């Protein structure tokens, strides 16, 4: 199962201000001069250097080389109940895969995370200082409109800011994504221009209204009040404004069919339709091998990797990216309220061994990830854990002893009449979660902590457990974006709707805020690493490893695959001639 946290920049023939900050910070290294399809260099084992990965593997082809028509069946891991991707219950990979075909994105992101304005929605965009304040002027394409005929105007941008600005807690947002730094959005020279003024500089302003940042524009009509924002996209997608529109939604078959929208004003979609069908992640490889699906996110599934390679007409597409696998400790669970207990548990878990067993059989390095915000090979990556990242069961035992959690006659630690027995919630049919829960159970038993694994239906995992904080321990993947600050703020901010561990600190909030308004790469990197130091101390989210971006794809499909720091241009997905 995958969650998508929230969320850098080059102009088109427009007037977008370029921020060199993003390019250096976001670009994952790649082999100089290597072809997009070149395989990554694998490290030999634990402790090796991070690989020099290809940036992207998409079978990129010009539209002229592709044929008109066809259907793509795309496997997603959950049929959503909340289709608003920036609502607290809607921030899922499956939701985003669907709505990105349907909703506006103001930007295009390339393999290195460089942002270019999308002319389908913007005719001009610029960021400038006015009287000491950052002002972004968004000039909209007057041809752009919602599927109900309503034009896209400055009012939509204002409504998105009011919903995501964090001023009204009744809006149950997954992220504020920089909108909390905005003080006003007003009409410009006409209805097709919005003038956005920031309270203080925001370095990642291009993450706004951006598919690469998992934050598309939403319509004013359906987000202008908390009730509308929270419920209008519940079990439906009421309006669209993209190259595809909703053809049908069927919760029984867990299928959404998107069809080419004849009212779309941009490049005509090459495909006739995209069928998004939900499968348990463990069932996807076999569905691909049987020809039921044409494209799916395999991730670090070794058996799936082998099956893709042996499937006639199928191929593996893989690349480096900002994705990670993580362990979550619920800081508000009665037995885990003390950060020192959580720190001890982290030291008792051999993350290198989990990485090795999760990734066995893949051409990927068995190297744990030791930073919450930056992946290995990303600019500024370093270990700020002050020793907490090191597997040290003796230190864990000593800490638990000092806190009064003493081993009882049965070997299980207890205190004040309570035993240290934790519940690990894992989604069914997920080989990674099964392995991780088994390994964590074994490792914590060695220091006197009992773990009881509760396997739950994959379709109920997020809605029924993660969102409700109904677990002591769990693990899932986070699919990142080109924006390391926007990507992570909501996950670590105190009292955020997406803070699954429910822990944080003022120092962590301050460091993230400093990163958000940084003027240079060095300033942002320094602030992110200060935030990482604090994240290790609050000990809620524990990075395991950089998650391999591995996809199973039909060979004839073009312009889709492992995007790296880029995004999918849905109207350009097509079949080779």
Polypeptide structure, described:
The chain is α+β, with helices and mostly antiparallel strands and 577 residues long. Among the domains are: 103-220, Dipeptide-binding Protein, Domain 1 (Dipeptide-binding Protein, domain 1, Alpha-Beta Complex), CATH 3.90.76; 320-547, Dipeptide-binding Protein, Domain 3 (Dipeptide-binding Protein, domain 3). Helices cover 23% and strands 21% of the residues. Strands 1-21-15-22 form a 4-stranded mixed sheet, covered by helices on one side. The protein is globular, with a radius of gyration of 23 Å. Residues 3-53 have low confidence and may be disordered.
Question: Which architecture of the domain at 320-547 per CATH?
Answer: Roll
CATH topology name of the domain at 320-547, in short, is Dipeptide-binding Protein, domain 3
Number of strands: 25
DSSP strand content: 15-25%
Q: Give the CA-CA distance, first to last residue.
A: 35 Å
In round numbers, the mean pLDDT is: 89
Looking at this protein, list some descriptive labels:
577 residues, alpha+beta, Dipeptide-binding Protein, domain 1, four-stranded mixed beta sheet, 25 strands, globular, SBP_5_dom, SBP_5, peptide transmembrane transporter activity, signal, Peptide/Ni-bd
Strands, helices and their partners?
Elements: E1 2-3, H1 20-26, E2 66-67, E3 71-76, H2 93-99, E4 107-109, E5 115-117, E6 122-130, E7 133-140, H3 154-164, E8 182-187, E9 193-198, H4 220-223, H5 226-231, E10 244-250, E11 255-260, E12 273-278, H6 284-289, E13 295-297, H7 302-310, E14 314-319, E15 324-329, H8 339-347, H9 351-359, H10 393-402, E16 406-407, E17 413-415, E18 418-419, E19 421-427, H11 431-445, E20 450-456, H12 461-466, E21 473-478, H13 489-492, H14 506-516, H15 521-538, E22 541-546, E23 549-554, E24 557-558, E25 574-576
Parallel strand pairs: 1-21, 3-12, 19-20
Antiparallel strand pairs: 2-25, 4-5, 6-7, 7-9, 8-9, 10-11, 11-12, 13-23, 14-23, 15-21, 15-22, 16-17, 17-18, 24-25
Helix pairs in contact: 8-10, 9-11, 14-15
């Amino acid at each position: 199962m995958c969650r998508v946290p929230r969320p850098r920049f080059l102009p088109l023939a427009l007037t977008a201000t370029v921020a060199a900050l993003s390019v250096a910070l976001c670009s994952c290294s790649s082999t100089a001069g290597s072809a997009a399809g070149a395989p990554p260099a694998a490290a030999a084992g634990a402790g090796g250097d991070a690989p020099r990965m290809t940036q992207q593997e998409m079978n990129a082809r010009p539209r002229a080389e592709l044929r008109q028509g066809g259907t793509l069946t795309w496997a997603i891991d959950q049929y959503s109940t909340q289709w608003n991707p920036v609502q607290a219950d809607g921030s899922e990979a499956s939701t985003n895969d669907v709505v990105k075909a349907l909703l506006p994105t103001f930007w295009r992101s390339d393999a290195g995370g460089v942002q270019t304005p999308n002319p389908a929605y913007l005719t001009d965009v610029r960021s400038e200082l006015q009287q000491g304040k950052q002002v972004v002027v968004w000039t909209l394409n007057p041809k752009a409109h919602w599927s109900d005929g309503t034009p896209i105007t400055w009012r939509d941008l204002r409504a998105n800011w009011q919903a995501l600005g964090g001023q009204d807690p009744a809006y149950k947002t997954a992220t504020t994504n920089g909108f909390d730094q905005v003080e006003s959005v007003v009409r410009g020279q006409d209805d097709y221009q919005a003038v956005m003024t920031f309270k203080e500089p925001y370095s990642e302003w291009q993450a706004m209204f951006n598919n690469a940042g998992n934050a598309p524009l939403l319509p004013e009509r359906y987000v202008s009040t908390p009730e509308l924002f929270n419920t209008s996209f519940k079990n439906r997608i009421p309006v669209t404004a993209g190259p595809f529109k909703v053809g049908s939604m069927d919760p029984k078959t867990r299928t959404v069919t998107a069809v080419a929208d004849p009212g779309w004003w941009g490049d005509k979609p090459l495909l006739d339709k995209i069928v998004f069908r939900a499968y348990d992640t463990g069932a996807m490889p076999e569905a691909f091998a049987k020809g039921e699906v044409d494209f799916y996110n395999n991730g670090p599934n070794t058996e799936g990797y082998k099956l893709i390679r042996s499937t006639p007409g199928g191929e593996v597409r893989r690349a480096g990216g900002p994705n990670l696998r993580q362990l979550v400790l619920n800081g508000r669970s009665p037995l885990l309220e003390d950060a020192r207990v959580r720190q001890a548990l982290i030291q008792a878990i051999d993350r290198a061994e989990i990485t090795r067993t999760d990734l066995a059989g893949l051409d990927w390095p068995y190297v744990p990830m030791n930073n919450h915000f930056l992946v290995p090979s990303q600019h500024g990556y370093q270990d700020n854990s002050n020793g907490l990242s090191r597997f040290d069961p003796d230190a864990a035992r000593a800490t638990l002893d000092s806190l009064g959690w003493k081993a009882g006659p049965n070997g299980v630690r207890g205190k004040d009449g309570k035993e240290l027995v934790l519940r690990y919630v894992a989604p069914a049919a997920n080989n990674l979660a099964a392995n991780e829960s088994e390994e964590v159970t074994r490792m914590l038993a060695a220091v006197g902590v009992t773990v009881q694994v509760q396997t739950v239906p994959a379709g109920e995992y997020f809605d029924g457990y993660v969102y409700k904080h109904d677990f002591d321990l769990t693990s899932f993947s986070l699919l990142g974006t080109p924006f390391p600050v926007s990507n992570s703020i909501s996950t670590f901010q105190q009292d955020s709707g997406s803070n699954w561990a429910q822990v944080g600190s003022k120092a962590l909030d301050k460091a993230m805020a400093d990163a958000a308004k940084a003027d240079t790469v060095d300033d942002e990197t320094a602030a992110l690493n200060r935030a990482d130091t604090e994240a290790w101390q609050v000990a809620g989210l524990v990075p395991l490893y950089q998650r391999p971006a591995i996809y199973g794809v039909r060979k004839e499909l073009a312009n889709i695959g492992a995007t790296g720091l880029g995004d999918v241009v849905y109207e350009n997905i097509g079949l080779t001639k």
